Amino acid sequence: MKKVKPIIIFSLFVTVVILIIPTILVLPFSADTTEKTVAKQQSEPNWEKLLEEASAINVAVYRTKKDEVETVPLEKYIVGVVGAEMPAEFEEEALKAQSLTARTFIVKQLMTDKQVGILKGGDVSDTTTHQVYKNEDELKEIWGVDYSKNINKIRKAVYETRGQILVYDNTPITASYFSTSNGYTENAEDYWTNPIPYLISVESPWDVESPKFTDQVKMPISEFESKLGVKVSSSNIGEIVSRTTSHRVEKVKIGDKEFTGRDIREKLGLRSTDFSWKLEDDQVVITTKGFGHGIGMSQYGANGMAKEGKTFEEIVKYYYKGVSISEANAFLEQYVAKK
Description:
This protein is an alpha+beta fold. Helix content is about 45%, strand content about 20%.
């Protein structure tokens, strides 16, 4: 019988070591990683349950597409509003600021006498008439693979501001908000009818980073004339007579007709009342700055402030002058007593 050469034995030994050592090394690390993942999942708060427990009342939401009313615990309703109204990738402090405004809006709405029959018994609709609301199934469809990450981020922001609203003179404020400013927010009286002491113009320089900061619309002259009921001359569209302190259009004169900037925005479907226009062949070219009515909190401004390290309290008190943060329970008790 031939002896096995030492070099062969050594080669076999090395091969076995090469095969075994990675297994020895990988198994403990794999087990450790799995344990950490499980531990993290177990330590993650059950935000959904916590939000239900934190909800003092339910909100009846009229779902416009389904023509039915959906009843939702208050804090879960706020999650649905924040998820629908503000990008989930925004900073947590911005999401908290949005949570406060959304909660304030619905509390004020609940305390206002309802218009019977319009919402089929609902407290609020799910559109911009009130606040856009999406339930979790709808958000899951919108966000896809990012759903778990996004929903938990928003649930956390809502929970950490639970039960809190904005008040002025011990009354829930009109918590108006919008997407993007033109660099300034608008005085309430310059877009609506009456002044509101906490809705005054402030600088909002962060909005220039918004992808919605500028927009351009090209509209056939015939369509422009039809929508406004005017006749455009061959060389001139009309005169922008005046602008507000926030540089938005206040008054416009086209021929013998006068319009407010708000009239033009709504009739033409523009993003903002900060606009300029020019004739280009057979079209009216309109350039706008900002997106929304401009009153109250700018969402992109809030996110810009959060990126600079500002807290949600600092954000809301910057955009709503002279307000304070208060517990909603006292106001909700009034609402329940009226029912």
